[in-house]
Amino acid sequence: MTINTRPLEPDSLAEWFVGLKWDPSQDLEIVTSGNPTMLPKTTPGTVYWTTHDILSRKVKVSREVFYPDITGSASAYSSFTREYTSISNPDEEMAGLVAAAEASDERAFIEVTETINWSTRSASDYVKAIRLAISAGVHLKARHLATEGAKRYPANIELNKMSRILAPPQILSSSLPPRPDAGADMQWLRTHGDEFRGQWVALKAGDLLRSASTFDEIIQMVGNPRGRNILVTKVY
Amino acid sequence: MLLFGDGRSFATGKMTYEYRPTSQQTASNRLILRVEINNLPLLAIVDTGAPYVIVQPKYARLLQLDPTEALEETQLMIRGTTFKGHIHRVLVNLPASEGESMSLEATLFIPETDEVSWGNLPSFLGMMGFLERIRFAIDPFEDSFYFGTLS
Question: Does the distance separating the beta carbons of A135 and B74 come in below 8 Å?
Fold first, then answer.
């Protein structure tokens, strides 16, 4: 279980937040907090945090009365109560995406994206979600979000770029002439591979140009092979 | 070149592949194709479990891609290791030794890492972002890779 914190309500002390962090090594929920000097030591407050339960694939928003001197194991504090509510807002949903991405939970990530009303989302939310999707390994969802985001915000440069780069492969031509030169390189490797095993070779149309013991060495010999139809490879 | 039962074309190009390990430290054979990425010839393995085309760092240097044309730095899990890098759009050629060669735009991941961290990993031709729009088949008897468009 991953628990993120969020600030107190606006009329409470700004900058203060608190949350629970599950410590798997001890199977304990540890109370954590930030900027404690800003909170009066004697006044309880109300705290909200989001709970992203990866196993049940639910995002919950929790509310509790907070006593400022609480720290350490949650179970040690009887005054520390939790009240799950159905409160939800856009930030909680995005926090759910972050939690799922950090957990590399692809299914949870997809489920959270499907609960989000994207028609109310900003271009920057799309961009953030696409980046999270890629880092979570949900590449098809990243593509869908990029396509949808670019349609919704056609003037947004970043979304257009994402949509173009993540788009399905596009066949430019499938009727180009045959290239027997490329096949000749593969034939050379098959025929002469044993003689050059462990070496780097530079081949062109089935002819050996040079061989060397390192990649850098052979590139120094033949130059950058890009655009010159020279295959540089190690022979295994 | 290869046809469906109703006469429609399945594959229009054919290339020879290598079937061998990709390093001296590995024993599993991989299906290795000679492709060209932005006109740089290189060998890459077919990996239907991988996303995108992924190019080894040493070859990525030769591509000299403009980082401003890429997506912001992201990370990708490759064979159990997370690598930071950039995602680009590139031109990939499949040169046919027989039949028709193919050219397509595809998505490419360039790992921003040193060669020591990359280790013995090869370059990859992944399903999502590359193979997903190609109809392909292999003939293990002749080590031939057949390819064609989906249409």
Answer: yes
Domains of chain A by residue range: 1-87, 89-170, 180-234
What is the distance in angstroms between the Cα of B98 and the nearest Cα belonging to chain A? 6
Identity at B81, one-letter amino acid code: T
Q: Which residue of B has its CA nearest to A184?
A: B97
Residue B111 lies in a domain: yes
Q: How far is A34 from chain B (nearest CA, A)?
A: 29
The burial class, CB within 10 Å (0-12 / 13-18 / 19+), for A120 is: exposed
Report d(CA B129, CA B88) in Å as an integer. 11
CA A200 to chain centre: 36
Is B80 domain-assigned? no
Q: Cβ separation of A169 and B149 shorter than 8 Å?
A: no
Q: In DSSP terms, which residues pair with B70 in a beta bridge?
A: none
Count of domains for chain B: 1
Tell me the whole-structure pTM to 2 decimals: 0.77
B102: nearest CB among A135, A173, A236: A173
Q: Find the domain containing B143 and state its range.
A: 2-67+95-119+129-149
pLDDT tens sequence across A140-191: 999 999 999 999 999 999 999 999 999 999 999 999 999 999 999 999 999 9
ipTM exceeding 0.90, yes/no: yes
Whether residues A169 and B72 touch (CB distance < 8 A) is answered with no
